[in-house]
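To illustrate the input format used throughout this study, we show a single complete record. The first block contains the structure-token representation of the backbone; no residue identities are included at this stage. The design step must infer an amino acid for every position from geometry alone.
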């Protein structure tokens, strides 16, 4: 065997050994941390189940404005969502919603927004409007607003309640 072949063979064997024995030992199953929580992307409507508010996705909603999301909310959960225990507690009357910057105001003359009994329907409105406002603003990079930054005021014609952030209602 020529010296060149010996050197080539030695280098080949050394390289093969290095590639097959990299020093990493096998391990058992490694678990991760808890799953991510908080608001996700896209349009979501908020309904109520036995434990509080639950957001449901409406990926192909065709939403164009905030009054439209109130109408969608008023339609209630779909059949599968109802079978899963979701319900709508919001009574939709006159729809008057305005937004400026990260602020949204929902006006509903004669509505009850102030009692403990109204916490869940208020949360449905606040979280749905916050998500919808963020969703609509995301179509314009210059005015993109995060759902967590949206503040919603509820106005019953006699008194204003809030401003609220969705996180105030998601304490489950």
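Output of the design step:
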């Amino acid at each position: 065997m020529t010296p060149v072949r010996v050197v080539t063979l030695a280098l080949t064997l050394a390289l093969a050994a290095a590639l097959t024995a990299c020093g990493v030992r096998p391990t058992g199953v490694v678990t991760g941390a808890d799953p991510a929580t908080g608001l996700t992307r896209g349009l979501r409507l908020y309904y109520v189940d036995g434990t509080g508010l639950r957001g449901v996705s409406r990926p192909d909603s065709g939403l164009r404005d905030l009054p439209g999301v109130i109408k969608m909310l008023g339609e209630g959960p779909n059949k599968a969502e109802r079978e899963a225990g979701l319900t709508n507690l919001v009574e939709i009357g006159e729809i008057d919603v305005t937004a400026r910057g990260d602020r949204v105001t929902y006006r509903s003359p004669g509505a009850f927004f102030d009692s403990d009994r109204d916490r869940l329907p208020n949360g449905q409105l606040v979280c749905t409007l916050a998500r919808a406002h963020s969703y609509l603003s995301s179509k314009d990079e210059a005015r993109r607003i995060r759902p967590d930054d949206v503040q919603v005021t509820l106005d019953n014609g006699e008194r204003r309640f809030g401003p609220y952030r969705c996180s105030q209602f998601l304490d489950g």
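Structural context for interpreting the output: The longest strand covers residues 44-49. The beta strands are 44-49, 52-57, 96-100, 103-107, 151-155, 160-164.
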